[in-house]
């Protein structure tokens, strides 16, 4: 793994960094092919939006792309994590006037997921952990991720690849590490992320790509029964790609047709 | 400032530490007199409870006290921050089986606050930022503090020493960095922290100490009008001690009698 901190080779951050103290930052995880990030327009748009939402210093696009390429040198396929922190601060929540930001680019060789996950779908469960409703932070891929950590800690069974999370009012929001889409009666639906949840880059790509396949996706409040009654359900993130749900507790699906069309389209996307 | 990371002199943490990645940890801030933490029974109880709530490895008490004393050597009065993180992990929310934890003890000379804050009370404001209702994380002094960061970023006026925060249902919970008590009609009330907020060590000390002054404090849901109609309002944390509210928007208080009795008692507490 190669790590660049503010462009320098390093693998540590100051203990006074506000990412550590308060989770005061955002991140993205992305796939690199020959040093080039896939789905970059969608990743970059999300990173810019998230930095703006927290008034974080967004890195220069050219600098960031150069650092990704450098950290991935020699790797045909790699995983990158980009973390943008407020930077160092002294005691107290107040944002330092001179906060310079910290930029961590960590790249490692692609380890991937079993191809069967994408081909045959996966098994998932419902999480007990609920997402709190916090419109001010909703959608942002920020570093305050204890809800996801606790949700993911609910199961150890490796057969279960994902857990679905509800908000505190009982609406379905996402998986612990993925966004969710359902196909029902010819309509594609995905949960609104205006009150909680993480707005993923691949979710944005799917919303942009579905019309070309004849679907105008709707962003809605979704109940558990909407998922259970769906014709197809699929999860997405930038590393797993698109995974169909084959099983959710007792519910079994065997129609993955739309997910497979989207996988094929995604495979052609640079 | 002296910083010990897992007992070794250091001032950095791995970029793979989960405190940085997810805010997966807890912390306490405390005052040291000649290397001895004040209010230690309350601080230690809160640290243990918070570690237990997140299944974090709680440090050994003897080890932690020795590290605090070492980091404070030469300082008659000091400020310590103790951070307990899940430790290093690889990609993904799942808690590593072998997570060893990271322990950061940072000590610096006491810088303090103007004595007038304790003597004459302070001015505060209402924050627009609301605390989300998340019972699973309520009370824990964890590292997911973006709500506090955003609340504190709402004002720059140095005259305003604190901002009061409501939860998403409109109940008063706390200050951005302090807990809150009100005296009204001879009763002492403080907000319940079962749905959000941070349970501070000095709050616990106050709840334990008020009966000796003739008050049986009640832990309740408090509305903004309950604060505005109170005879006395005071804020507390382990560094500021006890500050009366002298002004909240248009509301002025000049009775600080109970707060002053508590300050006197706190001054005698080791």
From TrEMBL, chains A, B:
This is aminodeoxychorismate lyase. Its EC number is 4.1.3.38. It catalyses: 4-amino-4-deoxychorismate = 4-aminobenzoate + pyruvate + H(+). The keyword Metal-binding does not apply. InterPro entries: Aminodeoxychorismate_lyase_IV (IPR017824), Aminotrans_IV (IPR001544), Aminotransferase-like (IPR036038), BCAT-like_C (IPR043132), BCAT-like_N (IPR043131), Class-IV_PLP-Dep_Aminotrnsfr (IPR050571). GO terms for cellular component: cytosol. It is an enzyme of class 4 (lyase). PANTHER family: AMINO-ACID AMINOTRANSFERASE, AMINODEOXYCHORISMATE LYASE. Pathway: Cofactor biosynthesis; tetrahydrofolate biosynthesis; 4-aminobenzoate from chorismate: step 2/2. SUPFAM superfamilies: D-aminoacid aminotransferase-like PLP-dependent enzymes. The keyword Nuclease does not apply. One of its GO terms (biological process) is folic acid biosynthetic process. Keywords: Folate biosynthesis, Lyase, Pyridoxal phosphate. Belongs to the class-IV pyridoxal-phosphate-dependent aminotransferase family. It comes from Craterilacuibacter sinensis. It comes from the Bacteria. One of its GO terms (molecular function) is pyridoxal phosphate binding. Gene3D superfamilies: 3.30.470.10, D-amino Acid Aminotransferase, subunit A, domain 2. Homodimer. Its cofactor is pyridoxal 5'-phosphate.
């Amino acid at each position: 793994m190669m790590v660049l901190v503010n462009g320098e080779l390093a693998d540590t951050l100051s203990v006074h960094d506000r990412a550590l103290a308060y989770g005061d930052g955002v991140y993205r995880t992305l796939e690199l092919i020959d040093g080039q990030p896939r789905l970059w327009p969608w990743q970059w748009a999300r990173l810019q939006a998230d930095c703006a939402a927290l008034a974080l210093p967004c890195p220069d696009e050219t600098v960031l792309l150069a650092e990704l390429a450098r950290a991935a040198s020699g790797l045909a396929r790699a995983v990158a994590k980009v973390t943008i922190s407020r930077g160092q601060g002294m005691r107290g929540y107040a944002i330092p006037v001179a906060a310079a930001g910290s930029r961590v680019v960590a790249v490692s060789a692609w380890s991937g997921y079993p191809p069967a996950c994408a081909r045959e779908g996966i098994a998932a469960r419902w999480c007990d952990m609920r997402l709190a409703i916090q419109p001010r932070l909703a959608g942002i891929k920020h570093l305050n991720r204890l809800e996801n950590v606790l949700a993911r800690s609910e199961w150890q069974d490796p057969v279960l690849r994902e857990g679905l999370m509800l908000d505190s009012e009982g609406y379905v929001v996402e998986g612990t590490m993925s966004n969710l889409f359902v196909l029902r009666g010819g309509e594609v639906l995905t949960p609104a992320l205006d009150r909680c949840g993480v707005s993923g880059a691949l979710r944005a790509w799917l919303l942009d790509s579905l019309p070309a396949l004849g679907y105008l996706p709707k962003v809605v409040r979704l109940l558990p029964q909407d998922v259970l009654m769906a014709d197809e359900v699929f999860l997405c993130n930038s590393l797993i790609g698109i995974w169909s749900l084959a099983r959710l507790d007792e519910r079994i699906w065997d129609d993955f047709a739309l997910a497979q069309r989207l996988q094929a389209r995604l495979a052609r996307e640079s």
